[in-house]
Write a structure and sequence with these properties.
The structure holds two protein chains of two kinds. By secondary structure, chain A is α/β, with parallel strands linked by helices. Chain A has three domains: 1-71; 115-287, Rossmann fold; 308-361, Arc Repressor Mutant, subunit A, CATH 1.10.10.10. Chain A has 17 helices and twelve strands. Chain B contains 24 helices and 18 strands. Chain B starts with a strand and ends in a 14-residue tail after the last helix. The chains are: A alpha/beta, B alpha/beta. Chain A binds chain B through residues 122-126, 129-130, 133, 152-153, 156-157, 160, 163-164, 182, 184-185, 187-188, 191, 261-263, 321, 323-326, 328, 335-337, 339-340, 343-344, 347, 352-358, 360, and chain B through 216-219, 222, 237, 368, 374-375, 377-378, 380-385, 406-407, 409, 475-476, 479, 497, 508-509, 512-513, 515-516, 523-524, 527-532, 534, 536-538.
Chain lengths: 363, 538
């Protein structure tokens, strides 16, 4: 048994969190030593509560099983990277309550590469979705690593953008690394380890419990140099992550939205409080002092190649979803003709249909 | 002594001529009834005896036997009271029953001798006519309904006393009194028929709603028109209060106008269910049925020991509207499957096999998500999974039978206040009728009548695409991962749209429009893929 196996055993002890483990490690100096201490002694020194101490003692007979589990991880394509390892991300060592060990599928973020977290609402608008995807794509094209939570909505869009641009991206899960949540993102879940990695501090097999998500948020912000909040409601989880990032000393950027949109209230609030504003990928590149010849901008497609009527219909659309009746009304064309033109524009990649018969322009 | 009178019973939606025989003999006094009788028919003996007594008839204590034949047909309903009473009177020699060979009697008796109305008069009188009878004695309240049937003498009777007087008088002067009493008109002078007949049948088909009243919602209206023209089943998806019900309610106004046969078919079903309006017992309009989502399977199909038609049959010839489709019980919805194909409901019981018409157009409406506000993300906080689960509750086999699916958006205030003249139902109907005519010619000599009923073979021969369109459609099909079923549906709908346009060949715009109406599962249940096709939220 080596020190890391004892560490693994300790990590798996129920009701022992990262903070407690750090405290014990500081006090006793090695994980082997911790294993050899009686639970009652820990309780007597007020290191842990009496209940936790009992559980600690009760967990000791599990050592053998934990070692087997630890050994079997590699067969399942999972690595366990602990604070004892060289590989352990340097960015994480600086945050409070950093996980003692993390499970990784794929690889860990590069230390010297700039890293950005793209986070936001799960039930985002198509505006948020498109902006997140475009940011993910153009930032990763410039060599920036994209970190996010693989959740629905903005998180997923960020990953998607990075994957499309063949950049590197890292997903920090609120479940075990072998559990794909949400299930819709299975393809993404399979692809991310090829272009980056899937990370989690939770043991394999852990289900996606609600209480895990705030915990993983500290890792998302911890792993990145800067976080971008794309869309967030007031009092949303993304704002909590932004706050955590500030506590960890990271910079927070936000994508502005319409003042009337609920989904942008959180972002606009961040900007009012002094967060950086993202008007395009350039703002982020500037932060990292990455120079580019050509300015990068988020903008709509060039309409030069379109026919007159197509241009007319296209000009009625924006990033706010518009129902087809309204498009027909605004363009002055008959409804059936509008349907034809919109379908063609959609197939040509100029517009998107976020919900059926609602149209937005494509970024 | 013996006597014989004709009555009529109901088997499903059809009448069934029943011969009621009575015999009075010496012997132990009593009243016996035979002939496969339902409890309510068996009870008739007490009603008949008491009501005759209360009407002032006194009979010697003898043995009375009543037989309803054919004896192996199960008889139910309360319409046999009157023929039984008449047969008993005849057997006692109160009148010459042989005069009644050409007549049929229907009615229920009260203990005071009054004759009360019964359900199902129209199919019964139609059956009487089919069997060659020329005269019907009906309860007064049913006279108007009976008069729907042409060339039938209808005589209304109020109570047994009056009936007996009437029959005796007919005996005395049978030849001169009731001759030429076609439709019973002249019988009024002996007080046997009420004065108010109302307008003659058939009544004109008028509706008190019209598409003119619907402001905006151009897409929904257009989709509805296409659906009605090709008789495609239709699904509306949209938030509450966007006019889904309002538009659905007006569908009968744009369906081709009812022929007399259709009106009679519809009226028959309503007559059996006892749903005809008192003053005007005739269904001149196409029905619009909107059962509540708590409806049971039996209420949809029809049921009971002696089956009565359900909502599907009541909607026959018109529209069956299922509002809040996901809320209906799965079991009830599954019942729609077979009737949607065969256009009839068949119920098998110990007493026989009953067939009800179920030739309706299915129109359904659903909210897009549990809260009903999707895709307005400022109000809807339903998660993607919730939305998918909510619409996923809709039975797949039923969705397979729905060709057109369209969205409703919230109506802007400006649209409500707009003075724009909307198209009237009359204009839309004329277009629909033209398309129906085209289909009639296309499918003449075939079993199918509408574009929606085309099978794979028909689609190949009637929905040809030219080379360019073929290529376009192939690309779309592959890019969007459509199913073979969706392929067929899109082409069928495109055919109808081309017909509406008066075009022989399906053109690009027809195809594009049809693609826009493609059904729910193709639109909402696309899983996210990395190429970013569509599925994000508004």
């Amino acid at each position: 048994m080596n020190e890391k196996e004892y560490l693994y055993w300790l990590c798996r002890t129920p009701s022992f969190g990262a903070v407690t483990i750090h405290k014990l490690y500081e006090r006793y100096g090695s994980f082997t030593a911790i294993y050899n201490i009686e639970g009652t002694a820990l309780a007597a020194e007020h290191m842990v509560s009496r209940e936790a101490a009992e559980e600690f003692d009760g967990w000791k007979p599990q050592l053998g099983r934990m070692k087997d589990e630890y050994d079997s991880l590699s067969e399942r394509g999972i690595r366990f990277v602990s604070i004892l390892d060289e590989e352990y991300p340097g960015r994480l060592t600086h945050i409070y309550g950093n996980p003692v060990g993390i499970y990784v599928k794929g690889r860990l973020p590069e230390e010297e590469m700039p890293t950005v977290a793209v986070i936001g609402a799960r039930n985002c608008s198509s505006y948020g979705f498109q902006v997140a995807r475009a940011l993910g794509a153009s930032l990763s094209r410039e060599g920036i690593q994209i970190v996010s939570g693989m959740a629905r909505g903005v998180d997923g869009a960020g990953h998607e953008g990075a994957l499309m641009a063949e950049g590197s991206t890292f997903a920090v899960l609120g479940s075990g690394v072998d559990v794909c949540y949400p299930r819709d993102h299975f393809e993404m879940y399979m692809q991310i380890p090829r272009q980056g990695g899937v990370l989690s501090e939770f043991a394999p097999g852990t289900r996606a419990l609600a209480r895990n998500f705030p915990m993983r948020n500290r890792i998302i912000s911890g792993l990145s140099d800067l976080i971008v909040v794309v869309e967030a409601r007031e009092k949303s989880g993304s704002l909590i992550t932004a706050e955590l990032a500030l506590e960890q000393g990271k910079d927070v950027y936000a994508v502005p939205g319409m003042v009337t949109a609920d989904l942008s209230k959180g972002c606009n609030q961040l900007i009012r409080q002094g967060a950086g504003i993202v008007t395009g990928p350039d703002d982020i590149l500037e932060y990292f002092q990455i120079k580019r010849e050509k300015k990068l901008k988020l903008r709509e497609k060039n309409v030069r190649g379109l026919a007159k009527k197509e241009k007319k219909v296209y000009s009625c659309l924006n990033l706010q979803p518009k129902f087809i009746d309204q498009v027909a009304e605004d363009s002055g064309l008959p409804l059936t003709e509008c349907m034809t033109i919109l379908l063609e524009l959609e197939l040509a990649g100029y517009v998107l249909q976020p919900a059926s018969h609602y149209y937005v322009t494509k970024l | 002594m013996f006597s014989k009178v004709w009555g009529i019973g109901l088997l499903g939606v059809e009448g069934c001529l029943v011969c009621v025989e009575a015999d009075v003999q010496d012997g132990l006094p009593g009243f016996a009834m035979v002939g496969a009788l339902a409890p309510e028919v068996r009870e008739a003996q007490d009603r008949v005896r008491t009501s005759l007594k209360n009407a002032g008839f006194h009979f010697p204590p003898k043995r009375v036997t009543v037989n309803l034949s054919p004896a192996d047909v199960h008889k139910s309903g309360t319409g046999f009271d009157l023929p039984i009473a008449a047969a008993v009177l005849g057997a006692h020699g109160m009148f010459d029953w042989e005069e009644l060979e050409n007549a049929v009697m229907i009615g229920e008796l009260g203990l005071d001798g009054r004759i009360k109305p019964v359900r199902g008069i129209l199919p019964m009188v139609l059956e009487a006519k089919r069997c060659g009878k020329g005269r019907c004695y009906l309860p007064e309240e049913n006279v108007r309904e009976g008069r729907i049937v042409p060339d039938m003498e209808i005589i209304g009777v109020r109570d047994v006393r009056q009936l007996s007087e009437l029959l005796q008088r007919q005996n005395r002067g049978a030849k001169d009194d009731c001759k030429g009493n076609r439709n019973g008109g002249e019988c009024r002078k002996d007080g046997s028929i009420p004065d108010a007949f109302g307008p003659p049948f058939p009544l004109p088909e008028t509706y008190d709603v019209d598409y003119r009243e619907v402001q905006g919602q151009a897409l929904m209206k257009r989709a509805t028109e296409v659906a009605v023209a090709g008789r495609h089943n239709l699904l509306y998806i949209g938030p509450a209060g966007t006019g889904k019900t309002m538009i659905a309610q007006r569908i009968p106004t744009i369906m081709p106008s009812c022929t007399l046969e259709e009106q009679l078919e519809i009226t028959k079903v309503y007559s059996i269910c006892g749903l005809l309006p008192r003053e005007n017992p005739f269904m001149s309009r196409r029905p619009f049925r909107s059962p509540h989502h708590s409806v049971t399977a039996q209420a949809l199909t029809g049921g009971g020991k002696n089956p009565v038609p359900g909502e599907m049959s009541l909607a026959s010839g018109g529209v069956l509207f299922l509002d809040e489709l996901p809320e209906f019980s799965k079991y009830a919805i599954e019942m729609l499957r077979q009737p949607l194909e065969s256009h009839k409901v068949v119920l098998s019981r110990v007493s026989g096999r009953y067939e009800f018409p179920a030739d309706f157009m299915l129109v359904a409406a659903a909210n897009p998500c549990p809260c009903g506000h999707y895709p307005d993300r400022n109000r809807c906080r339903c998660s993607d999974a919730q939305i998918r689960q909510y619409l996923g509750k809709i039975s797949k086999p039923i969705l397979d039978r729905i060709d057109i699916c369209t969205e409703a958006s919230p109506v802007a205030f400006g649209e409500l206040r707009s003075q724009k003249r909307e198209e009237s139902s009359e204009t839309i109907r004329s277009r629909v009728e033209r398309v129906r005519e085209v289909q009639k010619i296309r499918f003449s000599g075939r079993k199918i009548r509408f574009n929606s009923q085309m099978n794979g073979e028909d689609i190949r021969s009637y929905c040809r695409l030219d080379e360019k369109e073929e290529g376009f459609f192939r690309e779309f099909y592959q890019k969007n991962g459509l199913s073979a079923r969706a392929y067929g549906k899109i082409l069928k709908v495109a055919r109808t749209i081309a017909d509406l346009d008066g075009a022989e060949q399906i053109s690009h715009s027809h195809l594009c429009e049809a693609i826009g109406y493609r059904s729910l599962e193709e639109k909402y249940w696309k899983t996210a893929d990395l190429s970013g096709q569509g599925r994000c939220q508004v």
